[in-house]
Amino acid sequence: MKPRAVRRMGLVGAALAAVLLAGCAGGSTGSTGSTGQGDKPTSGATDSSSTGTGSATADAGQGGTFSVASSDPTHLTPGNTWSFYLESLLFTGPLRIDSATGEPVPGVATSVTSSDQKVWTIKLAKGWTFSNGEPVTAQSFADAWNATALSTNGWVQNSNFALFEGYDAMNPAKGKPTATTLSGVKVVDDLTLQVTLTKPYGLFPYVIASYAFAPMPKEAFTDPKGFDAAPIGNGPYKIEGKYTANQAVTVVRNDAYPGPKGKADKIVFKPYTSYDTAYNDLLAGNTDIVYPVPADRLSDAQARLGDRTAVAKIPNLNYLAFPLWDKRFDNVKVREAFSMAIDRDALTKSILKGAGESATSISPSSAVGSNPGSCTACAFDPAKAKQLLAEAGGWSGPLKLYATQDPANTQILQAIANQLRTNLGITNITFDTPPYAQLDPQVKDKTLDGPFLYYWGAYFPHVANFLGPLMSKSGIANDTGYDNAKVNDLLDQADSMDVKQGLPLYQQAEAQVWKDMPIAPIYFGRYTAAWTDHVSDVPVGVNGLGDLSQVVVTN
């Protein structure tokens, strides 16, 4: 499945699909992004005296086996899969994000530094090996990155490398690639990489925290098909046997891993096509961890399982996008009126039932730089909404609302339509919920004649990974046609700075966005994990499920 298909599938049901596939959404300014792990950037550089490898006396495993409900991964090559949790056990990249705190922490890298945010030096720790004993070197990373970035391979994580120098030559708009390696990736020595970007980007450490930037051994290139079925990684676990479509995937503890050892002997990923079925299996004791619990089962889970549930705050936004190419939405007062006519609290309580939180900014509180309440037109105020619409000349004729095909979307659209009828007096409202494959081309071609419900899941928990993709002229998820020179300039400036230095500029950019109101934030998805009494220490945080290697089997 391609990333846009997952990222765009809509609100409740489709947003859950994105979570099931774990980190499918993607892109930052200039179409670069990652799935949400990174090192801590400070003063234009990321540096750490800790390698994330622990010590020679890393925690010993506790034993036992537990199972996790999952989707079928299809592929296991890190640059060609969306299977976040499985890949995070099989591979360790340069950096990662701590799922509990959202703070960037090291993986294989000891430091990621830059003096200008454009040329980055990555220093790797000594002593790392793949599970077949081959040393992990700078070349191991370079080879994997080049393979992912090469368009003719058709790997799903390709766009993560869009800001690397040489990407365009490997991904031409027309014709064949004129290069097979990234000119911006240089192997300095066995433990040092130098990466040159096409422009300064202070959030680069977050980008390379994705499992898409994991290293790959030589065997991956001599037998790609065999590697995809039985990958040789450098993570805390290694695959047992070979991957078979729609069958459980079992990983076993890698005792040679230099970091904290996995607690369980084995972890089994059981594929499901329905998370209702997965939840029923959890209640029957046949599956140990389910994430997320279906929205209509949340109250049951909380009543039955109590403290064996936890809510993850993955960075995401569900929003109503205005077709700025439609003259009826030219006036910002119309867009503000629509937004203020929507009672987000009532919608989240009556329909989402705990699976969503009202959105009053472009990013949730789990994202660095979030500014709750910055969208003043997100406040429910029907009197003001009616006034603004009248000042804009009122509304005449029909209104059509769009979303991708999903039963939950119908409920959301009906709720919004009822509020627009009641609070703005727009009576002739209809819906269209085609499959994603039919809706997205209409969005791209700018032929829709009404607002559409879409979902964005950020690659990493930072406001920049909402503003850049959704609001910059070149943003990978800018589907409204929004283009404000001031916003573009502020985002370019902020991107070129150290993370902390850039925050005020990101917030200025967001303030300008709400003066223009190209979208109406509706809610942030909130997804609940549940588990049996067979396991404990289940980590839940900004990545959804956290480091599964540290789950303890209790009986």
How is the topology of this model organized?
Layout: H1 3-7, H2 12-20, E1 41-42, E2 45-47, E3 65-70, H3 84-90, E4 95-97, E5 104-106, E6 109-113, E7 119-124, H4 138-149, H5 167-170, E8 185-189, E9 192-196, H6 204-207, H7 219-222, H8 224-229, E10 237-239, E11 249-253, E12 266-271, H9 275-283, E13 289-290, H10 298-305, E14 309-312, E15 316-321, H11 332-340, H12 344-352, E16 356-358, H13 382-391, E17 399-402, H14 407-424, E18 429-432, H15 436-445, E19 452-457, H16 464-471, H17 485-495, H18 499-516, E20 519-525, E21 527-531, E22 535-536, E23 540-541, E24 544-545, E25 552-553
Parallel strand pairs: 3-12, 17-18
Antiparallel strand pairs: 1-2, 2-6, 4-5, 6-7, 7-9, 8-9, 10-11, 11-12, 13-21, 14-21, 15-19, 15-20, 16-20, 22-25, 23-24
Helix pairs in contact: 11-13, 16-17, 17-18
